[in-house]
Amino acid sequence: MEHVEHCDAVAELVAAEPAVTEDVEGKRLLAEAEELLRAPDLLERFVSDVHAGGFVGEDKNLKLLKLVETSRLLDKPLGAVVKATAGSGKSELVRQALRRSAPVHEVDEFTPHALDSMGDVRNRVLYLTEAARINKAASQLRVLISEGRLVTRDHRSERRCDGPVAFITTTTALHVEPELESRLLELTLDESREQNRRIVSAKCTAAGEWGLDRVSYDEQTRVWQIASGLLMAKPVAIPDLERHLPPEYVACYSARRGVEKLIGLISAHTVLHQRRREERGGCLIATDEDIAACLELFQDHFGTVPPVLLAIETALKAQFANRDFTVTEAAAALDRNPDVLRRWIKELADLGRLEQPGKSMGRRGARWKMVNAVEPMVAAPPDSTHEFRTVSAPTVVRDATFAGDRDDFARAA
Length: 413
Description:
By secondary structure, the protein is of the alpha/beta class. 43% of the residues lie in helices and 13% in strands. The chain has helices spanning 9-14, 18-21, 24-37, 42-52, 59-70, 90-98, 112-116, 138-147, 178-181, 193-207, 214-230, 247-251, 255-272, 288-297, 307-320, 327-334, 338-350, 409-412; strands at residues 79-83, 104-107, 119-120, 124-128, 149-153, 158-162, 165-171, 185-188, 236-237, 279-280, 283-285, 325-326, 354-358, 367-370.
């Protein structure tokens, strides 16, 4: 097990002795960090600065990862799993987000003994580079995420891992361990042809230039690290949240845990903007701006269809709204691996989102067609009354886990 700790800028400048802050450069960076934290559009600034380094797209995922990182300061931090095919840039996305954060524990592999002997990781981000390497430590990890600490005792000693921690991992699998997955936000990458073109274009452009202004870029990254360390852990109150939720979502069993994630996002957004938020008795008060921003980011998580399948369903609906199709035809239209897409289609069928008008006959593949699914639930904007834009609730087939095999995307490649 390998531990990598970075972002020592916080230790050097924030918890600083006067001698450190008397340094002209240090004082300038601290001043810039304070100015940054007072900006009204911190998430947009964050995405813009990441893109300045040559990273392309994934605005929504970058914002979500920034909020997950900030949630380390909450009593109940968030967790996230980034799902995508092999080689799609999952790890690069996470690293781009976390390099501008406060201290991170990066772990290549979990074992039960290694996890419960990590010691004090309070208010840090725990990043597991690949979810498949959790091994037999999934139950311990669930305890650490849910309870904020892990204590293991035997007849010889007591071993502790003190949290709370924000947890981030990546996977090529359709699902990770079910009880762990239900505690995590599911993030999916943009694997469209348009995004492929943007990435290739950015790389070609970078290859033809003299290169990035490393001094300016590294300095801006350091300012973000310092700003992240300047944030204080404070409780958050979210007034009148329920009236902003789709009524159908409130009635779903999956909302029991889902609303905890939404509350975590809104709380993290409020903590990130704490320099601009009202404080009463040591408690930050979330604004309509915090609620609106997080409802938009959380939109794909309303309902019972996981985001990775919702993205595929949307793409299929755009191509085959009024006609049936085979897996081969869909793979060609969506530019996807047929074997991977076949698993996604099976999952959508199990959830009642696709149906088979005809069975496979000989060499001819089975044909599928879209079920007349309702529009996804859409939350009301904070400045509205109780008017919702949702049509009706999707049929609930199952809530906690989803049908289908758990093979890796990569295995089909």
